[in-house]
Design brief:
Elements: H1 2-16, H2 22-32, H3 40-49, H4 53-67
Helix pairs in contact: 1-2, 1-3, 2-4, 3-4
């Protein structure tokens, strides 16, 4: 589980890196969905702290779907 948390933290940091292009940040958020419930704290963090509405909305959608138990794919 420790490795999984490290991966989640690294991916979260990529999503939060304002020096990266938007598509990289979106794909990082998509990648977090692979971790399902374990990624909820990271998705919530990004949703609260991100500088871009499109990323905030993407996180919000994934959070909602994970909490509802819906199948979450890496594409919207």
């Amino acid at each position: 589980m420790e490795n999984e948390q490290v991966a989640i933290d690294v991916i979260r940091d990529i999503a939060m890196d304002s020096n990266r292009v938007l598509v990289e940040r979106q794909r990082a958020i998509d990648a977090l969905t692979l971790f399902r419930d374990a990624a909820l704290p990271a998705l919530t963090f990004i949703e609260r702290k991100t500088d871009m509405n499109v990323l905030r909305e993407r996180c919000g959608l994934y959070i909602q779907r994970i909490k509802a138990g819906a199948n979450v794919s890496m594409t919207l």
